[in-house]
Specification:
The chain is of the alpha+beta class. Helices cover 33% and strands 13% of the residues. Helix 7 crosses helix 10.
Length: 287
């Protein structure tokens, strides 16, 4: 192929090729998500003050008919297998203290109701935000005398999915007044707009400037994170939020940070805020 330089439409990326890639506009579909004909999910909501977009829209609206139908039916949603695994882990005794999650928190449907909608939260002892995964690890170490889960290993994803699933349908809300959460929000915002990698892309390049467009087979959403851990058809498995962050950064051909690093925790704070008002969808189904 004879290569020549051009600017990819809408992305501001310098690429070399004679093929001019077109972005096809195909906005989010009009539809309503009701899980199992019982739980209505908020998939569109007014944006928070200071948000760059007038409305926040769940990634569910950008998926195909069959993918949307899969999320609406718990029996068809492959991510529910992970939730079931998490339910078993909830009552599994581990560690030197002879305890399980259930030993302290009893019935998760009651004790964890709404919890997944308000994380990440400020953690005073560590002086940084804490997400559900880090909260699980802290409980394992401090209360169960068990080893912390390694990133995406063991029961980390299924237990996180189980806990967040107890908040299904609850609107996401981040408290930026706790501790130094505002400072982390600001750091996350800077990272969201920072172009990186050989492709010179930022999160905003796809999810703000070009959401609603097709690039190859991918329909770009606003990138809201209210459905994580998410069941991705591409992998046939639950995918954690920090795994997805790292995957996007990798796709810009940049070096990605460690999971739960300061950079990715700041990005989690900011992106969670961007989707405030949308319901927890965990486990969402995406392509």
């Amino acid at each position: 192929m004879n290569y020549s330089r051009f600017i990819a439409a809408g992305l501001g990326v310098a690429i070399t090729t004679t093929f001019v890639a077109a972005t096809v506009v195909a906005g989010p579909v009009e539809d309503t998500l009701v899980i199992d004909d019982e739980i209505e999910i908020i998939t569109r909501a007014p944006s928070s003050e200071g948000h760059p977009l007038p409305e926040v829209i769940s990634g569910w609206h950008y998926r195909t008919d069959s993918t949307r139908a899969m999320e609406a039916d718990s029996f068809a949603n492959g991510g529910m297998l992970g939730v079931e695994q998490g339910a078993a882990l909830w009552s599994t005794v581990e560690g030197s203290e002879g305890k399980s999650c259930e030993s302290c928190h009893q019935d998760a449907a009651t004790s964890m109701a709404g919890v997944g909608a308000i994380y990440p939260k400020w953690h005073e002892e560590s002086g940084r935000p804490m997400n559900i995964e880090l909260r699980i690890n802290a409980c394992r170490v401090d209360n169960m005398g068990a080893e912390p889960y390694k990133f995406d290993k063991g029961g980390q994803k299924p237990l996180t999915a189980f806990i967040k699933h107890q908040s299904l349908g609850e609107p996401v809300k981040v408290n930026l007044e706790e501790g130094e959460m505002q400072k982390w929000w600001e750091a996350g915002k800077e990272l969201y707009y920072k172009r990186t990698g050989q492709l010179n892309l930022s999160c905003a390049s796809c999810h703000e400037l070009n959401n609603g467009k097709h690039i190859r087979a991918d329909h770009l959403s606003q990138g809201n994170v209210n459905g994580f851990p998410t069941y991705r058809l591409k992998q046939g498995n639950l995918i954690s939020l920090h795994n997805r962050f790292r995957g996007c950064i990798r796709d810009t051909r940049a070096e990605f940070p460690d999971a739960f690093s300061d950079d990715l925790m700041a990005l989690e704070v900011y992106t969670t805020w961007r989707g405030q008002g949308l319901s927890v969808e965990t486990p969402a189904v995406r392509q």
